[in-house]
Each structure stands twice: as structure tokens, then as C-alpha cells.
From TrEMBL:
The protein's assembly and partners: Component of the dolichol-phosphate mannose (DPM) synthase complex.
Family: Belongs to the glycosyltransferase 2 family.
Classification via CDD domains: DPM1_like (cd06442)
Catalytic activity, EC: 2.4.1.83
Organism: Vespula germanica
Protein name stated in the entry: Dolichol-phosphate mannosyltransferase subunit 1
Presence of the UniProt keyword Ribosomal protein in the record: no
Function text: Transfers mannose from GDP-mannose to dolichol monophosphate to form dolichol phosphate mannose (Dol-P-Man) which is the mannosyl donor in pathways leading to N-glycosylation, glycosyl phosphatidylinositol membrane anchoring, and O-mannosylation of proteins.
Catalytic activity: a di-trans,poly-cis-dolichyl phosphate + GDP-alpha-D-mannose = a di-trans,poly-cis-dolichyl beta-D-mannosyl phosphate + GDP
Amino acid sequence: MIDLFIIILLIIHYTKLLVHLISLASCHFKNRFLRIVVMSEEHEQILTAMRELSKNDKYSILLPTYNEVENLPIIVWLIVKYMDESKFAYEIIIIDDGSPDGTLDIAKKLQKLYGEDKIILKPREKKLGLGTAYMHGIKYATGNFIVLMDADLSHHPKYIPKMIELQKYQNLDIVSGTRYAGGGGVHGWDFKRKLISRGANFLTQLLLRPGASDLTGSFRLYKKDVLKQLIKSCVSKGYVFQMEMIVRARQFNYTIGEVPIAFIDRVYGESKLGGSEIFQFAKGLLYLFATT
């Protein structure tokens, strides 16, 4: 009988304790939820202020293409989606280098779909290199900011508004997407390619000390005047072009910010990085080391 009484008391005691713990957890969750709501409201206020600051700005997004017939419709749709949602003024300039797979035909259809004010086509007859493609595209850009990115879905357009927000918040000259800092990363590469990329980035950091964590990345936002000045100072025309841009930016004391990105290996098509590009990278690295 006594044992039964003790058991009942224990049940009552632990029931009260359980109710108390549930109450504490509920209060903690409520406070946490309210804190999240407040942070969300603050973030929305910041976004509103950023949009107000950007209302007179326009962003020209340059898309060099070569054999991107599968990727181009997707990347354009994503750019339109995120830029429209963010309410930033923009244009997409497609620079096709004589793709034999019909990329230009797809670009023309996209222009009809989204309008000539949103999609500007500035094709070239043959493949002339990434650096010259950017130089060609900027001549037709009407925006006061330029976004450089790949058309193969390696760079997700969802990061563009984040780059714009950071640029406005700190009044930066350049904002670069980084794979190597702050939670950035690379997905879809095998171990060998990751090792090569890490090794190349390590060498550039060691030899050039650029003041940016991802020197070889090609996803960036520039003030237009800054980009023009950098282009004038650069001599590289291929993949080394991106590397030289950051090195020259450091020489001109331009301010650089970084947004962590998840770099995704291309879904469709073949990588354009081959032996000749690797050789050009090594050659360009030595040139920049000797001249900066």
C-alpha cells in the first residue's frame, strides 16, 4: 500500500515537472519565433531601403555563350525571375560566339518572349575568348552596373540581388561571388578537378595576394566606370582575364566585397576548360606575378 502511494506521488511530481518543462519550451519557442519575425521585418526594411537607393540604377547582365542551347532558356528565366522579384531595373545582353548548336536561334526566341528591352543580342561570328566577349558586351550596356556571369548554370541568379544589397550597403566598387570563403563551395566536380581548382587558387593567393578569396571566379558585379577602367588596364583575353581584373582592381585601390556562392558544375553540355586554358592560366599567372 505504501509502495503504491509512493508511486502515485512520483507520478504526480514528474507530471508537474513535465508540464513545467513544456511551458518553458513553449516560452522559448515563442520568444525565438518573435525574434525571427523581428529579424525578418528588419531585413525587409533593409531590402526596401536598398531598393529605394537602387531605383535610379540599372543592371546590365552580360551572358557570353558558346554551345549553350539547353542552358540558355533556363538561365534567362532564372535571371528574369529573381530580378523581377527584387524589383531592380535590368537588361540581359547575350554575346554568342558563333555557336554551331543553335544557341543564337534560341536567344532570338527568348528575345521575342521577354522583349527587346530585356534581351539584347550582340552576337559575334566566331569564338574569340571570354575577355573580348565582355569587352564587346559592355559597349552596348545601358546600365550603370555590370553583372558578369556564366550562362551554363554554374552561377545561380539568386545571388545577384544579394550582390546588389552588399554593394549598396557598403558602396563597393566590385562584389565577387566566392567559392572559397563564408560557406561558399563547389558541387559536381570530381576530386581531381577540385584539387586542381584549390591548387590554382592557392598559387594565385601565394603569388599575387589579391585581397579576394576567389581570384579565378567569374561571377561578379561591377560599377560600370570601374569595369571600363579595369578593361583598359587588362591585357589578358581568356580565362586569365578574370584573374587580372581583381589584381588590377587592387592596384587601383578599388573596394571589393564578397558573397559566398554554391558553384554548380554545368548540367548540360561540355566544359570548355581544356589543356590550352590551363596553359594560358599558368602563363597568365606568371605574367601577373612579374608585372604586379
